[in-house]
Structures are given as C-alpha cells and as structure tokens.
CBPZ Carboxypeptidase
Amino acid sequence: FLSSGFQVAPETKAVMKWLRSIPFVLSASLHGGELVVTYPYDYSRHPMEEKMFSPTPDEKMFKMLAKAYADAHPVISDRSELRCGGNFVKRGGIINGAEWYSFTGGMADFNYLHTNCFEVTVEVGCEKFPLEEELFTIWHENRDALLNYMEMVHRGIKGIVSDKFGNPIKNARISVRGIRHDVTTGN
C-alpha cells in the first residue's frame, strides 16, 4: 500500500498515525461528485484492470454497512434512475470501490489493511463543490443515514481478551473461521 512510490503528505501521515494509535472500528469518508456508497477494496487486484470487482474477505459486512447508509438516505434509496446517482439504483445505491473505478492510496483500503477500522466512502451529492446554500439540504439528506451507519458499530462480536488474572491483553490476534482477515485487540 505505502510502497507504491508516491509521496505521502504530512497530514495523511498524521491521520495514519492517529488511526494506528486509537482502536477505531468504523468510519466513513464523505466526498462529493456522485450519490452512492462505496466500500473496499478501492484498488483492483489487477492494477491494469479498471472497474474490476475486488472484494475483501469481509465483503458481506462491508455490503451490510454500505446498505445501512444507503437505505436510510432519502435520495440514494429513491428508485428513480433519472436522478443524480440513478445509475446505482439497480445496485441498491452501493458499489465495490474498485468496480466503480480503481485507485491506489485510499483511506478505506488503508484502514482495512492496517487497522481494525472498517470504512466506507459516501458520495453525498452530485455536486463536487456544492454552493453554501446547498449545504443545509445535503446535511438533512445525510443526517439520518449517518446516524444509522454509526449505529452499526454495535454489530458483530465484542468483548475483552484477558489473561487468567483478568488483565486485558494488548495486540491479541483474533481470527474468525472462514474470514481471512484478522483483527487485534486495542490497549
């Protein structure tokens, strides 16, 4: 991921350090320019292939997370194909990032590969740079979807990994049979 030959900006390095220091488990990156929710991988397994489905071992979970956002968004969940984002209606308003377009260096891929954090990318509207007067509407279109997405943090397995004396074990590796992606315990 980091060996692809490009310079990492100082602010990106700071965010990466922050992500490694706090055990986040869920995040969303908000973008503009379309109306869809994408999930990892954003970078195709075959770098020369554009629009190639590249699922993670946690594909089912990522689809569930993306759908939680999309289904609670009043426009993304609208079945009209004649609207902004209408070309994603048949997909339920979600798509694997690399299947839409492949790019390297995305935070969702970094989070999945190097932290315990699952991240989706939310394209909040078709305007790449919305006008100030449009922000109120965009906020209201996305508020309930964001809250619904945040509630997904309570899904999955939770607990404390401890030694025989009840002391938490830092950096314990947790594997789930059938999913080839381990996570580690936090501090």
Summary: The first strand starts at residue 26 and ends at 31.
